[in-house]
Specification:
The chain is an alpha+beta fold. The chain contains nine helices and eight strands. The strands form three sheets. It has a four-stranded antiparallel sheet with strand order 2-5-7-8, with no helix packed on it. A two-stranded parallel sheet has the order 1-6.
Length: about 450
Amino acid sequence: MKKILILSIFMIYGIVSNAQEKSYSFTLQEAITFALDSSYTAINARRDIAKAIKQKWEVTAQGLPQINGKITYQNNLKQIVSLIPAEFFGGPSGTFSPVEFSPKQSVNASATLSQLIFDGSYLVGLQAAKVFLQYSKNANQKTQLEVRKGVINAYGSVLLSEEMVTILKKNKETLEKNLFETQQIYKNGFTEEESVEQLEITLNDIKNRLSNTKQMLQIAKQMFNLALGLNIDTPVNLTDSLESLTQKNTSLQLLETDLTIENNIDYKIASNLTQQRQLELKKEKTNALPNLAAFVNLGTLANGNDFTFLNNEQKWYAFSIFGVTMNVPLFSSMGRSAKTQRASIALDQANTQLKETEQKIKLALSQTKANYQFAIENYNNAKKNLSLAERIEHKNQLKFKEGLASSFELRQAQLQLFSAQQNFYQAMLNVINSKADLETILNL
């Protein structure tokens, strides 16, 4: 039994440990697929659709048969007394006798079936519910596009930080080696102290950048986890490289893609708003029409001076009522007219916003295409600059060791190289992000 108990404890510990140490590995496409299913915003967007479906049925149910039950128990603690002429009971004329007509206690149980026959606002409400459901679906689609773009940005930011940490570590090792060699030369009296100090300044700067970049890498990973709907401290491994993603996302053919404005999600949402305003105007107009409803009421009633309603001998009296109700709006002191005019103005505003949205989308497309093209050109330029900076830094390294270049000149070449390295990797990230922006507008 002890062995079984110990084995069970170890098994439980292993299960808990595995749960705590669960990690994930993603390509960019895998990360996007995961986020579209599990991110917080994607989950709530799907819930909005579910809410809209329920709201549609809620509106539909208002025009379907409604049954309501009602039970009323009444106990007249002090009964109402009515006065009737005393001569009815043989009393003198001109006098009155107090009489209690109703029993002290009563129970009334009834059920009412009601059915809406015609109501213009109900018919408009059905149409509005369908439009709202479509709006929720479009909002979900926009959320998916934004989640996709956010994951791409977060994925690229992690890769950029990882690349910069690697580069800074390599630069740090090179500088430490240069500093050690220069210190030895200085001890032997073959160089000035300033050469050592210049390298120390550069090394301290690199150490500071490396420390900051490591912190930024940790934050970038947490932001990536948040975009995917994971715990921010969950270990993640990104299998795509920044360079491979840059190559995949460099496509000048995308710049030739035309926009179908009706497919743009922002245009769809603006169009939904216009449809809603149209239906609001239609609803205000239908409020001037009569509405018709019918009802059937079935019930039973019992009375008594004592609470004997649960006894078999208690007499119950059934009743039933059928009725039709028509409500005809006649005069509202111009209130309905004001509401209709206000709804008409709101529709004009929505149409204006739709036109504005169309122009903004076209402008954003032009800007995004220009940004994407510039990002590709800047990447190619940064790649050339990095190659040149590496050659210049290498030459200055050789000149410095041979005493043909000063430590200041070496430091300038190194700083130029560090800047070129950062610009190169940032340029790759800009290519990836700008393509994601363009695809979002094109709804690809």
